[in-house]
Amino acid sequence: YRRVTQCRVGHAFIGKYYTQFNIPEPVDCPCGAGYQTSKHILTECPCYEDHHHYLYGVSPGLSLPVILGIMTKGIDALSSFFMESGAFTKTGELRGGPRELPRYEEEPDVDLSDGDLEDED
Hints:
Strand content: under 5%
Mean pLDDT: 82
Structural class: mainly alpha
Number of helices: 6
């Protein structure tokens, strides 16, 4: 929930924070919009539109007081949005890389002929 708190207080890897604390980082959003703010990322940014559905589920109008409020639904939705989108990270990428389940066809073949996996009675 660290990014939830960072988003609420405005201490995140976004243009508004960089300006406020005079940090020499770009302040424009990668989508081409001007100044990057929490509101822009959560409600408008096309970079995250594939993930806004988490937030629409608790606030169809994307109301920041609802999304950033103290209700468990908003906190859970915001956490899911962050985990799936990579928003508010320094690189804007998912932590630990994309999460994919292993596929059966990509698993290595196991050689059962040496008897190591047989029961020992």
